[in-house]
């Protein structure tokens, strides 16, 4: 699935704000920036895609780690 379509499909399931802040931590308007990129108002570059995929993997790992029973 294309990343842009994937992000549109999950925006009700996860916080795009936390994802955007992870991708662009120094950008105070990170959520708006991501939203514009998702909706086609700004180009979604290969570098953006790489950062977003990395952030999604980190968030996924964090979710999985937090749901594992602790010994």
From TrEMBL:
This is Uncharacterized protein. It comes from Spirosoma foliorum.
């Amino acid at each position: 699935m294309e990343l842009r379509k994937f992000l549109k499909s999950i925006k009700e399931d996860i916080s795009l704000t936390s994802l955007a802040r992870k991708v662009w931590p120094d950008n105070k308007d990170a959520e708006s920036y991501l939203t514009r990129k998702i909706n086609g108002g700004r180009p979604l570059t290969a570098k953006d895609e790489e950062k977003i995929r990395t952030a999604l993997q980190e968030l996924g790992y964090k979710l999985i780690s937090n749901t594992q029973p602790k010994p």
